[in-house]
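The record is kept unedited without comment:

——
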Amino acid sequence: MSCCVSALQKARYSYQPKLPAALKAGAVVKCTEGEKLAAFADKEKIEALFPSTSNMPVLTFAKADSAAQGKAVKVGVILSGGQAPGGHNVIAGIYDGIKSLNKDSKLFGFKGGPGGLVDNNYVEITDEFMDAYRNTGGFDMIGSGRTKLELVEQFDKGAENCKALGIDALIIIGGDDSNTNACLLAEYYKKNNVPIQVVGCPKTIDGDLKNKYIETSFGFDTATKVYSELIGNIERDANSAKKYWHFIKLMGRSASHIALECGLKTQANITIISEEVAAKQQTLDDIVSNIADVVIKRAENKENFGVILIPEGLIEFIPEMKKLISELNDLLAKEGENFTSIEAKDEKIKFILDRLPADLKAVFASLPEAIQLQLSNDRDPHGNVQVSLIETEKLLVELVKGKLKASGKKIKFGAQTHFFGYEGRCSVPSNFDADYCYSIGYNAAAIIANGKTAYMSSITNLVAPADQWVAGAVPLTAMMNIERRHGEDKPVIKKALVELDGAPFKKLVENRDKWAVETSFVFPGPIQYYGPSEVCDATTETLKLEHEGK
């Protein structure tokens, strides 16, 4: 790690994260088994695929009756998928947790993500090594990766490498796909009597790994605070200059949790929620017309400025665009080589138009050339369009311009576009995420100490002070369902989308007509690390509203 550190970073090294009462005396805890949980959906299919790890009980931890020391354990940890603030604190929690069991416990970090387990690329984490990363952002401590653990050969190689190191348990820190792989790995090891426990930890700034037992995924709090600071700065600039409409795309492909949270925090004029677009079958023209109407209303009030929040994955939720993208995915899967051999832009577009059915040809032809080409770009490893590369914010600007021109009204409309994504993934974690992540990791050590496998670390009651948080674990299979992936039925952890009958979305709906026309901006400012607890330890508007609604 670099020897050049900021004053803030030095101060954060010494921050001692808070823990739930159950874990304050160490990771030796009293474990209570609750109700047995079946799969989220497709129960019979999940039970058939996971016979050894289905229908397990939810666990709740309490402070142990005595401070007896546990046996020394050797644990491997993996960071999987995209970065999220607080990952290093999960590792710190694991490290301190297993050391609380026994000072001779050891932690190994597999480098570069799940591939490190298969390739036996690891580092032993020591006191000095760990202390250089406490309360810091990023995943640079051991790196991350997107290798999927789903093949028997990978499971066997991982077991072989763990056996050589004497590893008793693996902890996989990741999102829904990564924890789906953890579930597959846990089932394989348990079914084949491989003595390696597997525990998952919930990570994703997108916020789409959540349920009754996982109230939020780590990193969401920090990332949305970072984005909201930037949005607030732009709102203040817009209100000062009074001449630009700012179209801001926010990270979140499969769900609009980030956009919703930032909308509630900043009271932007328009916050588009992809799930609502899909539920109401809103067309691209519907969305553009709504924006244009707000622009006109504000112009009539001599306010030719505003802020619009756009979820990254919006384009896939618009019915005609979703259908078009699906058709393009199939077309380019079959004729990708022929398409990539074409160099001229107009010939590329003609190639696509000649092969689309009439209704989709009209949709494709109506789009600006830049968006046509972006929709035709290289696919991701799963064969899907890379929505982060589609400049939806610029598409909306161009279409709104056209709509205003067609209205015949003389409207002054200047626009700026932004995309906030990577800016939020590696920030220094907020106090909430520093505490939450540390608790998740420490709690994972308690799961290991109780000999459990195929569980996800669960910390709940998160709107209360940290010592009132509830520590426990939820079976990975309880979050599974069957989805169609690449023409096959696959077991996956269900993504949590924005609930249109949930309290956070209802709060947006209750206020959005007012926020659209009035300038009701809120300027959250930067993350605060020192000061009153109600300022420094506060969590998301989403969590607060969800708890109020219970």
Remarks:
- The domain at 222-425+502-548 is CATH 3.40.50.460 (Rossmann fold).
- The mean pLDDT is 94.
- DSSP finds 21 helices and 15 strands in the chain.
